[in-house]
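Lab notebook, bench 4. The sequencing result for the construct came back, and we need a structural model before the next group meeting so we can plan mutations. Quick request posted to the team channel:

Model the 3D structure of this chain.
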Amino acid sequence: MTLFNQDKDYIKRVNLALSFIDTHLNSNVLSLESISEVASFSPFHFHRIFKIIIGETLNSYINRKRLEQAAAALIHKKDLTVTEIAMQSGFSSNSSFSRAFKKFYAVSPSVFRTNHPHKFSKISTIESKNGQEKSNTEQYICNINNHLNWVTMYATIEIKTLPELHLASVTHIGVNNIENAFERIIKWAIPQGLMQDPETKLVRLFHDSFKITTPDKVRMSIGVLTEKDFLVDADIQKTSTTPGKYIVGHFEIPIEDFEKSWNSLYIWMHDNGYKKAEGAPFEIYQNDMRQHPEGLAVVDFHIPIV
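Done. Here's the predicted structure in token form:
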């Protein structure tokens, strides 16, 4: 769902609310009253508008984001206890966190951490044909090796320290109709003189992770890199990446290989002892794949690391 399909003034104000929620997710200031004030709506009107535009109530959205943040911490922050993660994710107690987490993910936080150290590391036992239990470790190792081989064959990987990058962007939620968001930002950028600049790059920044967020709710910013100052224009907003160290994987691939390439790059990260940082991963497109002789995207995948 591309948010510019809705009333543009409403989109601008809901985007302000989403940014406020992101910034204060771990605090106790996320009341309907405080968020609606940021968005310049009455609480009653904001509650209705938020659900229409985002597709879920404000409380459901905040609870989901907190649980997904906790799930990410369970995966990536092994040094923290479940209780510490609960407190850092805005829950008042470990018991309330555990109940909410189990209701959302169908397993307890401890079981989730054990079974999901990362997407491709779930080692279980299966029953062999002769009735004996057989470890699935060999299949796991084969899966890991396949992804490492893939990223070795199709990517050039570097570790880079990057400054804050600035985008003019639109918000898109879910995996359907993403092309509409790209068309919207390009349509906006052309009269700004940005698309005529060969240095202009399209970017897709992920505010959520497909590992812990259902595809229809993953929020992205689709934009163009620019240092040019511009006025926020209804659904066009200013977005920035987090400065710091990144794993950068340079790929030349068809669009259907994006998921495998991302997964392989995360496997490479774990295999080489890096840990994901708090910032959002993003893609920078180096070409127009429609003009590539084989229809391939030349794209750099960025994972923030500590």
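The chain has ten helices and ten strands.
Will bring this to the meeting.
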